[in-house]
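Table S7 (text form). Paired inputs.
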Amino acid sequence: MAGSISASPFVRFAALLGCAAAFVWATSLSMPAVVASHFEGDGYANGFMSRGAYIGFMLAVVVALPALLLFVSQFAFGRPGARINLPNRGYWLAPERRDQTILALRGGVRQFMAALVVFLCYVHWLVVRANEVNPPHLSTPWMVGGLVTFGAFALVWTRRLLRRFRVRPSSQE
């Protein structure tokens, strides 16, 4: 369309990954040379690594892992013989509905991966904050709050996905 900018979903996801990588990189530079990277349930550190190793690990977890999961799922959905398990799969994967079903599944996975990237950036931010105090201490309430929020998102996402693929009586005709 002339006059409108419409980035593809993959371009938007790549932009999110770029922002996440920049966020991890920029916020990690102020961390100490030895970073507290693993914490007990009470929030106190029980594992450490060099700042360089931490940055590499977090970039792999925050950027590379979601990108790989997204790529693999997008590729797998597109294969003609893909074994896709969803409610009423015979109905939704029938030739006349398969393309729309695959588009919906791909969109749902992109949405979930984007939420995962945001959550992992949040966890990284908590680790950065934990390393600002001596001894390093991760805020347990903030971590639990993040986990609960992400868990609630995952439940709502799953419910919406299952609701999307239920067969309505009028569509069985």
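Next pair, protein 2 of 2.
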Amino acid sequence: MAGHTHRAQSAMEYLMTYGWAILVIAVVLGALFFLGVFNGSNLTTSVCTGSPGYLCNNPVYEHTDGNISATVGQETGTNWISANFVFVSPGTPYVNGVPSVSFNSFPSNTIYSTQGLTSGSPVSLTLAATGPEPIGTVITGAIWAQYSYTITEAGVPQTVGPYYVQVSSLTLKSS
């Protein structure tokens, strides 16, 4: 009978030792979850993904004025003689596939109507967005362009457009 007592005592000591270790690990994990260490939004970085044929780099959302800065460009092989850019937030209504926003009113957009946008030559933009938003807020949306270009038919240059295109999609963290 003495052998059974020692085995029971060993089993209890085993359970108590590992039980305390598991309890400490559970408390630490609970505290980390409570503090937001495992919150996915803390891992969000600013991303600007260009649509095919378009470039978008270095996106920044400035929380103090609510503006978005980014470098955008087009590599379509066509030089745009005019280009107006706007930020389109989620929930914006669309008509015939085009967002219902003003492409021609400053300061809600950036206008390159006098210089256009040469294919393969990116430009830096500052666009009005949703802000100002608190630091750490995640802002999503898209950059759209309204553009025109020139074609030559029978030796006569003609301006065609305006055309509308989504240049990029954005996920930005306010900084």
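The first strand starts at residue 47 and ends at 50.
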